Amino acid sequence: VTDVGEMRSRYQSGGRNFQNAELAGAQLAGADLRNANLISAMLRGANLQQAQLDGAKLVIADLSEVDLSGASLRKAKLVGASLKQARLRGADLSWAKLGNADLRGAELVGAELVGASLSGADLREADLTGANLDKADLSDVNLEGARMPDGSIGE
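Structure (tokenized):
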């Protein structure tokens, strides 16, 4: 899939498989893509503000510089995904799987990460100010230079 209109049309008619979609810079603000298969999708620089991505599979997807502000990604699978410099301000990533994800420089201000699995994720220079990490798995996470929820800087 390389066209946003085609993707929306297929989703509305029951299609959920958008594996390897090429949608860099796509305007998908407010899109309903719950449970969509976006494995290996190229979404670099896309606008997904307020998008509904609960249960979506975004494993090894390129979400670098994507705007996911206010998006819902509850129980989404983002294992190995690239979220470098992504904007996730106020996003809900509760119970999401972010193992080995690249979140360097990501903005997670006020994000909900309750129960999220971040094992092995790279959060260097990320901003987690006010983020809720209750019950989150932070094993082997690189927090060097990250701004923690309490405003302190990670080592």
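Helices lie at 4-12. The longest helix spans residues 4-12.
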